[in-house]
Amino acid sequence: MLCLVGLLVFVLPTTRHVKVVRVLKTDQVGPQITSTPSLPAASAGVQPGRKPVYEEEPGAPATPAGAAGSATGTAPVAHSALPSGATASFARLSATLSGRVELAVVPLGAGSAQVLGADTPAHGWSTTKVPVLVALLKARGAEGLSASEKVLAHSAITESNNESILDLFGDLERIRGGLAGASAYIQELFSSSGDDETVVATAPPPPGAVTTFGQTEWRPSEAVKFFRALGNDCLLSSAQTSYVLDLMENVEPSESWGLGSAGFSSIAFKGGWGPEASGAYLVRQSGIVDVGSSRGVAVSIVAFPPAGSSSFSTGTQMLTDTAVWLRHELRLVPRAATGCSAE
């Protein structure tokens, strides 16, 4: 892998402003989990005594999107988000974890996705709440969300409230002609981001689950394409993108394990979790590191803990350990403009 020596990097300050807005959480569907994730002492703001809820189913880029190359017309330089030794380092990390972890990262600028630990299609669970919100915003166009929809969006993303996202999905269904139309509209977003593989689920969810779209099987390598496109203002206007990412930057402390507890200076993310057929919980997160700066990286992590009563807390700890590893390994290189054409 190419090593850059003596490279002078200018980091542009982020222009996003974090806004903390609190709303009363409504009751969520499903039994509560009695165990809580074990978070490192450095996880500032996390409330270790709060019980996680059975979820679903238990700013602007440095170069405007669409600009080409550089001022001289040369092609953008492709960078890798992880160093050449990352594969071996990740293998050493994996050996210390209780189960299997899969990871995908991709620079928001020029560069290909790097995948470590396999790339299995796995239920998106509540990480798919972000595509639902993005699809509704896109369908609304200049009209935007109503005041009540904004309250629902805040609850759905920052608190992962199931009833809120179901209400928003219902609005999308009314606009797009029902379940099939709304699901197809979300799938169009995936396709426009370069993901022609992922099929948004429409079958009735299994017992204990709540949403259809949460059962969508989403590879880490495909998930990062969506969040890369979102971070590059390729799916929404710049203002709408900022709105979604601001919500993702304000995930409540009790759900800020993993990427939210790794010590990143700036992180916008969404988690999801739910019981699989094996009886174990699948726990995952996707988002953007260094959101709003000139060095953003899209990331998706999926943890497959062993079955057992503590599989959720084990899975969240696996994500936290992996996110801490990622913070030390990640190369936040300046991004060159790539435009919004699907790869």
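(ticket continues) Second input and output from the same batch:
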Amino acid sequence: MKATNAVEVIDLTRYYGSLPAVDCVSFRVRRGEMFGFLGPNGAGKTTTIRMLTTLLEPTSGTIRIDGLDVAGHPVEVRTHLGVVPEASNVYTELSATENLHFSGQLYRMDRARRRRRASELLDRFGLASRAHVKVAELSKGMRRRLTVAMALMHEPTLLFLDEPISGLDVESARALKEMVRELNERGATIFLTTHQIEVANELCQRVAIIHKGRIATVGTPETLKSSIDSVQAVEVVFAGERVGDISLAGLSHVTGEVVTGNRFRLFTDSPGEVIPQVVDFARRSRLRLGSLNTLGPSLEDVFVRITGGELGKGSDAARGSADPEGKRRRQA
């Protein structure tokens, strides 16, 4: 009988010296689920993933993959896992087909099965026409697709994806997200780690946020957003050139600010009070408004509320921490 949960983590702890990098973490990932794992740098994400994928032994606690205890059956557990690291692990001097065959050999697949599986994956990931071209000649998007295909070569039941669309152009990122959705719809369990909160919001049925080595919250994106439904925002975009180092955090009723280029997200519980002030500020500062909108809470807002807003290098979201007066300014 198959286990209900693809991943079961109970009181997982890992110390480095006297420092608990992961501290009594517990959560479950249901079979067939797309599960997001979020957290700022240093929160314990990487350490947790390394333990889940058998690369690091925990100090204490229990991990079960498809019902198998990782500590007691590490070799068998690895046959259930496909891992797609953030950094490409393809061999550029080999062709796409050769990379797939090499991946299959690592799992002791026989030649006939390797050929059949490689052909199937090359077709599914749109690489058949480039099957015998050296990877060095493939685009970054194609290399990323090949990395996912290699992780799927031995037909794992659980796929770990680390920053799957990092550095990809818009078209390649969209194509890869569609492939991930398709894999999930076909029954694969996906464990997704990312700094790009909008990706988790778009793809995942549930997300967990880890902060300071502990699980801060687990739930569906909608449930987490509704938990802070008192938070609203006014989004301001100034047209034209970059506006320079200005801040709108000093406006009345603004409790926080996230800045990305000319785009300002102002957190407030009174949008109607903030909007006229924004218009007056733009007029006084001789800035032209490109757009002005009110927004409900987002998954990013949940993250900011829980962690203080520090996502990590390369994120599209806010960074920084609350100032002594409780008003946040973050420059993305």
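Agent notes: The longest helix spans residues 170-185. Residues 311-332 have pLDDT under 50 and may be disordered. Closing as not reproducible unless the customer responds.
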